[in-house]
């Protein structure tokens, strides 16, 4: 089967650049949206040029220019959007409604993967303020996609390893400590950690796969479904040292959010749902979904121990 041509929107982002790389690696003709709003962001320009040097087609288009988006979409079969959606960086999820409008107009797109890549928003209808905005906005985009009859795959990638493993699941920390650790609650709630490069690879593997058409791809590498305590134990083994442990109760955690700025509060509520409530692991995958490591068993994903080795 001929491999789909892919357009990556948000290709210079934290996940987006990995999607571009994975798309090359998996042998897809790869297009990357190049927005004029990039201005004099020299890092982004250099990154786009390096994509071009590796064979990507840069497509000039703006979210502010509907027809330029339509023209860009007409070049490809599959569109993957990795637009920003982390408040401490930037949150532009609803801008994707413009992509949805352009996909409707273009009429040729065989599959759209919107910027999701985290907790399944359809399971977060009872999420806390203010962090629920992430899930609510992603659901608005889903509704628009489905109302327009656009074929889709949603990727629920669980915890980006860099954010969650980096700080051993402590919010606001992305480097592992060597002396002490704050456990969230009893530290026994299971979460799922995925190397961002692996998220990109699974995402690209799924785009031509009929088994994930109009479904959610859940990324649940079995070795990486661990509690915070288990993650800490792996780190302690790697550094051959025990960390001093303190526990933060639910009440203390929620109280600590007061007075923090909005973006931090959004992130903290996400940690609360993951690490205190277990929102990533408290459900089974039904007919509306499929699990990545089962679909693509030949792909050797990075386990938590190997991921953490880079910090030693
Ligand atoms: N599960 C997790 O732990 C986790 C962690 C982080 C992120 N995520 C999710 O992953 C997705 C991508 O997040 P990210 O952190 O990779 O994003 P990011 O690096 O913050 O941004 C990605 C790209 O979005 C585009 N963008 C930003 N502002 C824009 C604007 N005003 N108009 C048009 N495009 C704009 C830019 O691409 P260009 O300049 O190239 O157009 C940017 O490089 C989001 O859905 C997020 O929620 C999940």
UniProtKB/TrEMBL annotation:
Tell me the GO BP annotations in alphabetical order.
(+)-pinoresinol catabolic process; (-)-secoisolariciresinol biosynthetic process
Q: Report which superkingdom the organism of origin falls in.
A: Eukaryota
Pfam families xrefs: NmrA
Q: Under which EC number(s) is this enzyme classified?
A: 1.23.1.1, 1.23.1.2
Family the entry assigns:
Belongs to the NmrA-type oxidoreductase family. Isoflavone reductase subfamily.
Q: How does it assemble?
A: Dimer.
Q: What is this protein called?
A: (+)-lariciresinol reductase
């Amino acid at each position: 089967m001929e491999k789909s041509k892919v357009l990556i929107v948000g290709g210079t982002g934290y996940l987006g650049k990995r999607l571009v790389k994975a798309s090359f690696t998996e042998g897809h003709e790869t297009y990357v949206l190049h927005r004029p709003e990039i201005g004099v962001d020299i890092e982004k320009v250099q990154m786009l040029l390096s994509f071009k040097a590796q064979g990507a087609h840069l497509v000039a288009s703006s979210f502010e220019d509907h027809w330029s988006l339509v023209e860009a979409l007409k070049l490809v079969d599959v569109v993957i959007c990795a637009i920003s959606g982390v408040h401490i960086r930037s949150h532009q999820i609803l801008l994707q409604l413009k992509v949805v409008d352009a996909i409707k107009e273009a009429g040729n797109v065989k599959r759209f993967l919107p910027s999701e890549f985290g907790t399944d928003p359809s399971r977060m209808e009872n999420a806390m303020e203010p962090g629920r905005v992430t899930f609510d906005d992603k659901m608005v985009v889903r509704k628009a996609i489905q109302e327009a009859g656009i074929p889709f795959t949603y990727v629920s990638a669980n915890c980006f390893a860099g954010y969650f493993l980096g700080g051993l699941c402590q919010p606001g920390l992305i480097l592992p400590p060597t002396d002490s650790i704050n456990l969230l609650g009893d530290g026994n709630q299971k979460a799922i950690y995925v190397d961002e490069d692996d998220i990109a690879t699974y995402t690209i593997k799924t785009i031509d796969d009929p088994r994930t058409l109009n479904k959610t791809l859940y990324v649940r590498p079995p070795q990486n479904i661990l509690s915070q305590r288990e993650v800490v134990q792996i780190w302690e083994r790697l550094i051959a040292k025990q960390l001093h442990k303190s526990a933060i109760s639910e009440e203390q955690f929620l109280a600590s959010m007061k007075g923090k700025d909005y973006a931090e509060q959004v992130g903290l509520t996400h940690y609360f749902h993951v690490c205190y409530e277990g929102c990533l692991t408290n459900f089974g995958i039904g007919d509306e979904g499929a699990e990545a490591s089962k679909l693509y068993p030949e792909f050797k994903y990075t386990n938590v121990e190997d991921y953490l080795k880079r910090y030693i």
